[in-house]
Amino acid sequence: MNKKTKLGQIQIYTGDGKGKTTAALGLAIRAAGQGKKVGIVFFDKGGVFYGERKSLTKLEIDFWVTGGIRFKPGKPFRFGVNADDKKEATKGVDIARSLFQKKYDLVIMDEANSSMGLKMLEPKLILDLIKTKPAHTELVLTGRYCPPAVIKQASLVTEMKLKKHYFNQGIPCRKGIEF
Q1: pTM metric for this prediction
Q2: How far apart are CA 69 and CA 152, in angstroms?
Q3: 1-15 pLDDT, tens per residue?
Q4: What is the rounded CA–CA span in Å between residue 1 and residue 80?
């Protein structure tokens, strides 16, 4: 296998459009189906009601959840960042670092970009983490507000652009579609 076909790239899914987490989860399923060891760290997504987590368990994809509960079906979204949010975000970076040491082939840091944008994480923490990434590990960062310094380190950047969203027409988050 030559260098161009090996794992080890850095991918970013960012932008204000829907589908960043979904794209990363699709990649996780593909990698697991090819026998790759996959780990996902969910940043800022506390709570147990996200449907993908049930599926990931069935697919033998390892995942960890960090972050306080900001969203509950039928309840208002919790805005703002507190000390616990920052502590949980740092915990997520530590988990990702441990996955590097455990020789995961694919590590997804879901909503890590948003965590930087919301000032839960300093971009320096992610940039330092990238420096420690093993050559064989593919790293994926998702979420809005990816800082330019992090984008500069990426091999692939996909920006999801919002053109139209049913949420703006009063349609709330739906079980099985948004969570």
Answers
A1: 0.88
A2: 31
A3: 445 667 899 999 999
A4: 47
* CATH number, position 136: 3.40.50.300
Angle at CA of residue 155, ends 151 and 159, nearest 5°: 55
Q: What percent of the chain has pLDDT over 70?
A: 93
Examine residue 174 and state whether it is found in any structural domain, yes or no: no
**Contact in structure between 65 and 92 (CB atoms under 8 Å):** no
Give 140: exposed, middle or buried? Use CB within 10 Å, 0-12, 13-18, 19+.
Answer: buried
Per the domain annotation, does 179 fall within a domain?
A: no
Cα angle 58, 109, 65 (rounded to 5 degrees) comes to 55
Tally of domains within the chain: 1
Ordered alpha helix ranges (H), 16-82: 20-33, 51-58
Torsion of CA 165, 168, 173, 177, to 10 degrees: -10
Virtual torsion, Cα 101, 65, 150, 127, nearest 10 deg? -40
| Cα–Cα distance, 151 to 149 (Å, whole number) | 6
HEC sequence for 69-86: CCCCCCCCCCCCCCHHHH
Residue (of 61, 143, 146) closest to 107 by Cα position: 61
User: Alpha-carbon distance 145 to 14, whole Å?
Assistant: 7
